Amino acid sequence: MRRLLVGLALALAFTAAPCFAFDDVFQQTYALPAGGSFQLQNVNGSVEVRGWDRNEVEVRAVKSSRHNPQDLGRVSIEVDARPGSVSIETRYPQDKGVEVYVEYRIRVPRRVRLDHVTTVNGALRVFGVDATGDLHTVNGNIEVLESSGRLSARTTNGNVRVEMRQIEAGGAMSLETVNGSIVLGLDTRAAADLDVRSVNGDFRSELPIALQGSFDARQFHGRLGAGGGAVHIRTVNGAIRLVTLRPTV
C-alpha cells in the first residue's frame, strides 16, 4: 500500500508539473512625449500597459514556445518609433503555423493616446493612464484601472471592467462584449449620456441615472449628471453594472 501511495504521489506530481517552455526576451526603450501615440498589435499573448512619469516607452516582451525553440526566431517584434509615436507589431510567418506565445509588459507616459492596442488570444490590462483610444481582444478579459480619459474596450469572449476617475469630453466611448459581463466604475460626479443594450443579462447601477424615455432593462438611454459624451454599453450574454468608484488610499 505504501509503495502504491508513493507511486501515485509521484504520478500526480509529474502530471501537475508545468510544461517546459523555451523563452526569448525582447526589451527596448523609445522616446515618446506626453500625449504621444502608442499602438500595439499582438496575436497570442496578454498585454499589460502601465503609465509612468517618463517621456518614453519601455517595451518588454517574452516570446515562449512549448516545443520548438527555433519557432522563437520565426516570430518577430517590429517597432516603428517616430517623433510623437511608437507602434509595435508581432509578426508570424505566413507560410507555416508556429506555436509561440508573446506576453507584453509596456510602460508609457501617463498621458498618452492608446490609438490601437489589440491582441487575439489574451487579456488586456491598463493601469494608471490618462488616455484616449481603443482596446480590443477576441478571447480574453479587458481591465482598465486607476485611469481617466476616454477609452473604448471590446472583446468577444471575456469580461470588461473599466474604472475611470474622470471621463473626458470627446467622441463616443464604447464598452462591448458578447460572452461576458461589463462593469463600469465612475466617480459620483461623472457626466455622460448612456446608451445601454443587453440581450441576456440584467442591469444594475449604484449611480443615479436620469432616464430618457421608458426604462427597459435590456435597452434604454439615460444621463449621468449633467450629461456629456456618449457612452455605449453592449453585451449579449452577461450582466451590466455601473458602480461607484471607491477612493484609493
What would your notes on this structure say?
This protein is mainly β. It has 2 domains: 25-111, no CATH class; 141-249, no CATH class. The chain has helices at 2-16, 71-74, and strands at 22-31, 37-41, 47-52, 56-65, 76-82, 85-91, 100-109, 111-118, 124-127, 130-136, 142-154, 160-167, 173-179, 182-186, 192-200, 203-205, 210-211, 219-224, 230-237, 240-244. The protein has a 20-stranded mixed beta sheet that branches. Strand 17 and strand 18 form a beta hairpin. The longest helix is centred in the N-terminal third of the chain and has 15 residues, at 2-16.
Brief descriptors of the model:
single chain; 2 helices; 20-stranded mixed beta sheet; 2 domains; 249 residues; disordered N terminus; mainly beta; 20 strands
Produce a short descriptive summary.
The protein has 249 residues and is mostly beta strands. The chain is 8% helix and 56% strand.
Topology:
Blueprint: H1 2-16, E1 22-31, E2 37-41, E3 47-52, E4 56-65, H2 71-74, E5 76-82, E6 85-91, E7 100-109, E8 111-118, E9 124-127, E10 130-136, E11 142-154, E12 160-167, E13 173-179, E14 182-186, E15 192-200, E16 203-205, E17 210-211, E18 219-224, E19 230-237, E20 240-244
Parallel strand pairs: 2-6, 2-8, 3-7, 3-9, 8-10, 9-11, 10-11, 11-12, 11-13, 12-14, 13-19, 14-20, 15-19, 16-20
Antiparallel strand pairs: 1-4, 4-7, 5-6, 15-18, 17-18
Structural category is: mainly beta
Discrete helix count: 2
**SSE order, as H and E?**
HEEEEHEEEEEEEEEEEEEEEE
Contiguous uncertain segments of 5+ residues: 1-18
What's the mean pLDDT score?
Answer: 89
Tell me the major beta sheet: 20 strands, mixed
Gap from first CA to last CA: 56 Å
> Helicity range of the residues?
under 10%
Radius of gyration: 21 Å
Share in β-strands: over 45%
Give me the count of strands: 20
Label the overall shape. globular
User: What is the total domain count?
Assistant: 2
